[in-house]
Amino acid sequence: MYTLIESLNSALQAVVAHKLRSVLTMLGIIIGVMAVIAVVSLIQGFSNSVTSEFKGLGADSLTIQSYLPRKQRLAGKIAKVTPDDLLAIQHEVTGISSLSPILPVGRFFNPVRYHGRSTTSRVIGTTPAGALNNGTYPDHGRFIVPSDDLRHRHVAVIGVTLINKLHLPADPLGQFLQISGDWFKIVGVLHARGQIFGFDQDNEVIVPYGAALSMQGGAAVPDIAIQLKVNDPRQIDAVTARITQVLRRQHHLKSGQDDDFKVQTASELLGSFTSVLNAITLILGGIVAISLLVGGIGIMNIMLVSVTERTREIGIIKSLGARRRDILLQFLIEAVTLSVIGGIIGVLFGYGIGVLAAHAVPAFRAAYVPWWAVLLAFGFSATVGVIFGIAPAAKAAALDPIEALRYE
Amino acid sequence: MSDAPLLELRQVSKRYVMGDNILDALKDVNLKIAHNEYVAFIGPSGSGKSTLMNIVGCLDRPTGGEYILNGTPVAQLDDNALAHIRNREIGFIFQNFNLLGRANALHNVMQPLIYRGIALGERRRLASQALQNVGLGERLHHLPNQLSGGQRQRVAIARALVGKPSILLADEPTGNLDSSTSKDVMAMFDTLYRDGHTIIVVTHDPNIAEHCQRVIHIMDGRIVSDKLNGKRREARAGV
Model-level pTM? Predict the structure, then answer.
């Protein structure tokens, strides 16, 4: 036991005695651990914020989207959830407290003009219930109201990004925007939601569902998504079953055919998101394993140099009665000390980078380092130290004392 | 002082084989050294005195013969057992001091005690006591390169003595020292001898050998003479 503490002590002395070299030796480990901690902290922070957003959607929410397996899409099949489906659900399914469509207008980005300035934005049509179902509320002005559709008003609720892009007045209510050729009066500004995966959630214009439908031009039946909330979360399975029944009938699906749509709860959406994150984490794990391998080779290299350099010192302590295992332990602990200190520095720097990046990129929210990542980083660095320290340590321990003492 | 010799070599030989060359560094050496003897191994370089010292100091094993140290046959022991004996029974003093450069005087002297599993506080106490005894009580925290040659050799002597070994083994202890410092170091050896230590000095310098009570001449791997220096006892060994 004493020998262990002694070895640790002398290992620390050796590390401190060659500060620059120690740091350079640790660099591989530092960078590897730093990279993983930075990325894990960002992903976990991101995941936490997304999870809480999904939780905001609540256990009483359902999302209906058209869905076809990739194979059938490649075969030219088309699946749609149509405005008629929306009406059918509205009339035939009970237990729904609020129901709203999401109808994207045109392509993903549509030209939006104001006073000769032009930009592109996502434009979606929805009904007043969309505010509740999607969790988007206006900061100024109002959301879509029932009379907008009744009176075929061309009104728009805009995201804050458009104010900047189009140089709209600070209070843009009452101004007119031209969207795909039609004029819309701004009646509300949405609460800012920030970016997600680099996607600006505030570059958005919301228009009444009816207006959006008319903008389709009637050329084709649009594919919409439907969001809804149920009265009683305990009835969510029953509501899902009923919706499935109605849509299968609407879509004329025979009993052997698969659904061409998906009815998903918030937790199911979250599940698919989490599985993507897990896959990313796994890939990162592989990259880190490689960088730690490289770091380990760096440590072995320096330890071998160190053993040669300290041949005489090894001879001296052998003459003083150090056994093979004393020397083995001393050099092994030195290698492990180097790699673990590298791991500690890597964790600190990685967390620092995560925090900085979280501040710099709004999408990343707060950085968060889970304990398992820290433990894993330490475990990995210590293991690397042992694996790559053993050869130099064995070399040191096997030195002949007389040869070692004679070494110049 | 018992009658049994402290160490005994019987027909000890050491042969080095390097390719086709065979070098007999030691040939059938017989030697007994008792407790509290003050012995010089003297001979020119290449005579085999260093090989003899390495075997006596358990740094090396003979290729033939027997070596009994304190009643234990050590010639065929494994590395760990030899390390154990070096730690307990031998105190080395080298020509170039062989201090650990990164450690201060105190830690240098504490080093051999680590391998005995002595606790830190006790190590510290023993080591500073040993340094006091060689007159370096004021320099415990100096690094070797902050000390003069004579001081370094005194640190080495303190380190050799701190574990209370049976034998002090000094290899050209004054080789790197000027003449006045050499005198100091030899005077210290004389004192240690009077205090009851067993000392073996390996040297090529007759003036150093003068200090010893018994002088063993080595030439071409053999003991060629084994004499008492002056008027003391007859040689016990040497056959």
Answer: 0.68
